[in-house]
Amino acid sequence: MSATTASTGSRTWSRLRSRMPWWVLVLLLTVLAFIWVFPFIWMVSASLKTSAEIFGGGLNLIPETLQWENYVRAWQDGNFRVYLLNTVIVTVATVAIVVARCALAGYVLGRYRFPGSRLVIGILVATLFVPTGYTIIPIVKISLELGLLDQLGGMILALAGGANVAAILIYAGYFRGMPAELEEAAIVDGAGFLRTFARIMLPLSMPVTATVGILTFLFTWNAFFLPLVFSFSNPALRTVSVGMQAFVGENSTDWPGMAAAGVISLLPIVVLFAFMQRYFIEGIAGAVKS
Amino acid sequence: MATQVMPVREIRTAAPAAPPSPARRRRERKRNLWIYAFLLPTFILYGMYTLYPIVASYWYSLVEWNGFSADQRFVGLDNYEAVLADPLFWSSVRVTLLFMLIVAPLRVFGAFALAILLNSPRLPFSSFFRTAYFLPVVTTTAIVGVVMRFILDPASGPVASVLQLFGLGPVDLLGSSSTALLTAGVIYVWKFFGITMIYWLAALQTIPKDLYEAARIDGAGALKLFRHITLPLLIPFLLIISVLTIEDCFHAFDLMQSMTAGGPFFSTEIIEIYIYRWAFAATIPQLGFASAAAVLFGIIVLVVVIAQVWATMVSRRLRARA
Question: Taking CA atoms, what residue in A is nearest to B125?
Fold first, then answer.
């Protein structure tokens, strides 16, 4: 560990001793980390076993032979092909709408005083903590009346219209902190309101856009309550989280199939996280800092 | 930074005081038109899916209404009377608050302890640990709920196998009404622990490093540094993180619905599941009744958040006076 070539025995020993608590800590944290990720390891293992193996195998994680047909069953019979596609469409569209509308609103709220600006901010802040369980009934009712309840578009609008107050406030705070010289220079150059925003302000707000985009992505990909209610009458609209519930309801004996469905549903977001974990973590951290 | 921000404020406060020439007023009106245009998408979406539902919930809570197509009949406060007389509503209030009391301290203070450890530059592999503890956060709650049903299955799940090794007979942690809520709470903490940990790590990053160095030169030990620098500087964050976390605890619908659906015997039926059951899962939906419960739920959330902000402000004032 910390043994060096030239040091005397006693010095090595004392250095080792001073490092000891840290290595004990590392050991404890490793055990904890293993427990933390164990459910995912177990799920992957179960998705490659037979039912009999899951029931009789106890804690053994290694399957006898890899049962890939579990995945085929979940993908085709379980309709996860459709559910995954729905989830991707809903998530991408929602992120695009949320980023666009929150950047626009955050820009004018953070940068300008205008008649009603205080009122708008006040109303937004007052509804920061409104729970979905509270608003869900009127949302379904208004969607039904507008003919939006039975299509993905309606689900997307409802997800994009919900609680994104924090995103607007993050944008507003960021735009407020930008130097005024930027605007003055743009006006001197003859740029109008729209061009100042699109050419100067928006490109400069990339860090906030990344934060808002990632948080919205996470929220939408994992959403359950709204997609569940929106796909009641039309199973073709199910996202992976709702599809999983339906699959469990219809095939409560097919454990390996369910584990495979779970892997199919979780894999995209876990892979994305693996590649972009810095942005995920900084995005969440950015929310508390501002 | 401060010098850069100054001019913005100057312009803003100076503009209305200047004599309004017609050309200027025209320019301002044009500017305001752009501003309202920028706000339009938010007005529409936010109005439809947040503001309108808040107002409509009040109206719906005053009518009797059995479905989305049936007629509505005004019944005044009858729905509230019925909700408040329902022992299962009170049970769901109790379950929601109890759940909050179990998970919020675990998340806030447990994550704090871990963040302190992981923030130390002397800890090897700290970024690996951060990633591992954060992983459950990115996963879909409703799917994790189903997976947990397998993991906790009394007949063949890995948890049962481990308990068997210690000679503890078959225990149905989610299937027994005495253990289900606590078990769900532990899983919820596992799922969202990482987010609170990242909040704390972000808070720790805001403490300037030279403060520690200066104190160390003055001869302060690790414990003194923690007590006199770290803790006092983190107190404002304790408010933010507690409010965010407690507010979060009211949104356990995904996990509860997918793991227990409120059972066994309503022992994990949080208010959101109670509302869902009456509005969507019942054979004859009672939307007026469910709306009354939803309005009461909104009030409970509001009261808890306000109480918390108020308590923290009072304690801070007391601290300042001491």
Answer: A26
B61 CA to chain A: closest CA distance, Å?
A: 11
Upstream peptide bond of B264 is cis (omega within 30 degrees of 0): yes
R_g of chain A computed on alpha carbons: 26
Q: Give the residue from B210, B215, B194, B51 showing the smallest Cα distance to B133.
A: B194
pLDDT digits (tens, 9 = 90+) for B105-162: 999 999 999 999 998 888 888 889 999 999 999 999 999 999 998 888 887 788 888 8
- Buried (b) or exposed (e) across B237-265, using 16+ Cβ within 10 A? bbbebbbbbbbbbbbbbbbbbbbbbbbbe
List chain B residues with CB under 8 Å of A166. Answer: none
For chain A, give the number of residues. 290
| CA–CA dist B33, B36 (Å, integer) | 5
Distance (Å) from the C-alpha of residue B218 to the closest C-alpha of chain A?
22
Inspect the interface and report whether the beta carbons of B254 and A266 lie closer than 8 Å: no
User: Consecutive 10-residue runs of chain A (290 residues): their mean pLDDT?
Assistant: 54 76 89 93 90 75 83 89 94 95 93 88 84 85 89 92 82 88 81 85 89 89 92 90 88 85 92 85 72
**Number of A:B CB contacts under 8 A?**
278
Span B183-236, pLDDT tens digits: 999 999 999 999 999 999 999 988 888 888 888 888 877 888 888 888 888 888
User: Does residue B173 contact residue B180 with C-beta atoms inside 8 Å?
Assistant: yes
Residue type, A36: W
Distance CA A81, CA B36 (A): 42
Q: State the residue for tokens 């006199």.
A: B228
CA distance B272 to A23: 45
DSSP string over B260-287: TTT-STTTT--HHHHHHIIIIISSS--H
Partners of B74 in the beta sheet? Answer: B63
